[in-house]
């Protein structure tokens, strides 16, 4: 008489395994149930191992019965595993789902300040012609801001009322009143020929109102090479004016005085809105040029030989031209910005409105 499980016991083992598999809802639980019901120490495996102890004539029948029970358990496992794997994936898909329809917090995008945008644009015009960008400090040596540029010691621009001096006074440092000191810095540090534009902030002890800021922006230009003169200056500024205001833009030079250029001029551009037609025509006034037909754009001239000499340059061989334009002013008339205070109040809506300046 063998003590191997009979048919009913085997059926109970299959059933118990099936129940345990059905109860397992995760793959881990299911594997533990498999270990218990089909693993090395499971009742069916132990029974299988004892088949060899049976008398020879009983082995076949017992082997078939136990084999069938094991196959049934394995099949039940395989079916359940497939089902749990699907359920497991479904659960993960739900748990890890991203709801792309959820509302997001929209943050307003920033914008380049129109002065920055226009500065980049102007610089691009020069970089395209092979010029370089030069820089200088805003806290500048008085000598570079004035003396090196041929300002006499008693020139009115130096007076405290215009120039912001930095303590201690004996240090002779000021907040630069124009970008022109970068001319001298460029000549002292670069090989000739020099073709540079220098954008940057400048400071004057000015009122703060719709048309004045104590801090504003200029674009300085300087070219020093063999044989440069007024015609090269005019051609360069015409090119810039056309790039900024359209291919038809006319310019004119009006005689003026600057200590560091000789001859010196102010450059005007033909009003790109009324093209001069508002002049003497009260029926068609022009806000952009105030019906003057021309807009004053900046100062310029042929570099005074004294400046070149101060930089140690042989004026028999080299000459040059220079110019300085107000960037804030340019944004004002180019983009119809009426009040300079809008430029410094930091309201992004102002910048966004003028974002086209960058294009
Ligand atoms: N620095 C002058 C100013 O701030 C502008 C200027 C005039 C710059 C003539 C120049 C120049 O380079 O040649 O008013």
Assembly type: single chain
Number of helices: 11
Q: Give the low-confidence spans.
A: none
Sheet with most strands: 7 strands, mixed
Helix content: 25-40%
In percent terms, what proportion of residues is strand? 15-25%
Q: Name the CATH architecture of the largest domain.
A: 2-Layer Sandwich
| Level-1 CATH class name of the largest domain | Alpha Beta
Instruction: Report the structural category.
Output: alpha+beta
Plain-language structure description:
The model has no long low-confidence stretch (mean pLDDT 92). The protein is of the alpha+beta class and 359 residues long. Strand 6 and strand 7 (261-270) form a beta hairpin. The longest helix is centred in the N-terminal third of the chain and has 40 residues, at 56-95. It folds into two domains: 7-95; 114-358, Bira Bifunctional Protein, Domain 2 (BirA Bifunctional Protein, domain 2). It contains eleven helices and nine strands. Strands 1-4-5-9-8-7-6 form a seven-stranded mixed sheet, with helices on both faces. The protein has a two-stranded antiparallel ribbon with strand order 2-3.
Question: Could you list some keywords that capture this structure?
Answer:
359 residues, single chain, 39% helix, alpha+beta, 11 helices, BirA Bifunctional Protein, domain 2, 9 strands, binds 3,4-dihydroxyphenylalanine, two-stranded antiparallel ribbon
Q: What's the SSE blueprint?
A:
Elements: H1 7-23, H2 27-38, H3 43-49, H4 56-95, H5 114-127, E1 132-133, E2 139-141, H6 142-145, E3 173-175, H7 181-189, E4 194-203, E5 215-226, H8 230-245, E6 251-258, E7 261-270, E8 294-303, H9 305-310, E9 318-326, H10 327-335, H11 348-353
Parallel strand pairs: 1-4
Antiparallel strand pairs: 2-3, 4-5, 5-9, 6-7, 7-8, 8-9
Helix pairs in contact: 1-2, 1-4, 2-4, 3-4, 5-10
The structure holds 3,4-dihydroxyphenylalanine.
3,4-dihydroxyphenylalanine binds at residues 178, 180, 220, 258, 261, 299-301, 322-324.
